[in-house]
UniProtKB/TrEMBL annotation:
GO terms for biological process: CTP biosynthetic process; GTP biosynthetic process; UTP biosynthetic process. This is nucleoside-diphosphate kinase. The active site is at H117 (pros-phosphohistidine intermediate). It holds the Pfam family NDK. The lineage of its organism: Bacteria, Pseudomonadati, Bacteroidota, Cytophagia, Cytophagales.
Length: 140
């Protein structure tokens, strides 16, 4: 079933290089409405909880270190068919494989420092949005 919300993070590499504004512009121009947004910095422990599903993967420790290495922007986005359309907008995990014009193709540095996160399912979009934002911090 299509959902109308997804969750994103502008990751430390993109934030540090001052690409947040350009990325948010692409997101809004693609028709996504910002429902909640904040700048924050994760601890290694919180990054570990967010990416717990990857805890058995060899890159897990590196990923937690990277995601806690600097500020990020977390946001909930609204649009029809949000999860699928946002995955298309950001492109493949590895920027080398990402299609031209996608956010990762333009801004990502590597398979790890890949500029943005986008939820991969309706269920995870709801879980991830609730991980960062209470009901009083989002529109609806
Ligand atoms: P996503 O859904 O496209 O973000 O990709 P995954 O859920 O598979 O991986 C989560 C995140 O882990 C990615 O966005 C990357 O930041 C990182 N990652 C994925 N694969 C690798 C890898 O092979 N090596 C490293 N160092 N990081 C990876």
């Amino acid at each position: 079933m299509a959902t109308n919300r997804t969750f994103t993070m502008i990751k430390p590499d993109a934030f540090a290089e001052g690409n947040s504004g350009a990325i948010l512009k692409m997101i809004e121009e693609a028709g996504f409405k910002i429902v909640a947004m904040k700048a924050t910095q994760l601890t290694k422990e919180i990054a570990g909880k967010f990416y717990e599903v990857h805890s058995a993967r060899p890159f897990y420790a590196d990923l937690c270190a990277y995601m806690s290495s600097g500020p990020i922007i977390a946001a909930i986005l609204e649009k029809e068919n949000a999860v699928e359309d946002f995955r298309k907008l950001i492109g493949a995990t590895n920027p080398a494989d990402a299609a031209d014009g996608t956010i990762r193709k333009i801004f990502a540095k590597s398979i790890e420092a890949n500029a943005v996160h986008g939820s991969d399912s309706d269920e995870n979009a709801a879980i991830e949005g609730a991980f960062y934002f209470s009901m009083t911090e989002r529109v609806g």
